[in-house]
Amino acid sequence: METLTQKETFVDVTRKGTCIAFFSAYQDLEVDRMMSYFTPDAIIDFKPLGEGGKGKVAELGKGIWMGLMDAFPDIDNIIDTMEIEGDTVVCKVVIFGTQAK
Fold it and tell me: How far apart are CA 101 and CA 97, in angstroms?
C-alpha cells in the first residue's frame, strides 16, 4: 500500500497560524488586535451575507465583527476547517453566543 503525504509550505503554515491568532483575538473580543492581522487592502467574503458580505476588511469586516460582538457579548468561535487555496486561507468557523440585542 502506497501512502501519499502532502507537505505544507512554511508560508501556508504561517498563514494558518495567523488565522488561529485572529480567531483567538476574536474570542477575546479585541477588535484592534483582530484588525492587526490584515493588510490595509485585505478583503472579506463573509458567506452568510452573500454578495453583501464582500468588501474591505477595514470597513465591512470590522463593522460585521463589532456588530456581532455588540449583539452577542459572549460570542465565541471554533475553527471547523482551514484550507489553503492558492494564496488564500479559507476558514470555516462555527460562531455561537447568547443574543443580547
Answer: 12
The reported pTM is 0.85
Task: Give the separation between CA 3 and CA 54, rounded to whole angstroms.
Answer: 39
From the number of C-beta atoms within 10 Å of its C-beta (0-12, 13-18, 19+), residue 38 rates as middle
Strand 76-85 and strand 88-96: the pairing is: antiparallel
> C-alpha cell of 43?
478583503
Q: How far, in Å, CA of 2 to CA of 91, rounded?
A: 30
Per-residue pLDDT in tens (0 to 9) along the chain, 101 residues:
676 566 788 998 999 999 999 999 999 999 999 999 999 999 998 888 999 999 999 999 999 999 999 999 999 999 999 998 888 888 899 999 999 99
Do 78 and 93 contact (CB within 8 A), yes or no?
Answer: yes
Residue 28 main-chain phi, psi, to 5 deg: -85, 0
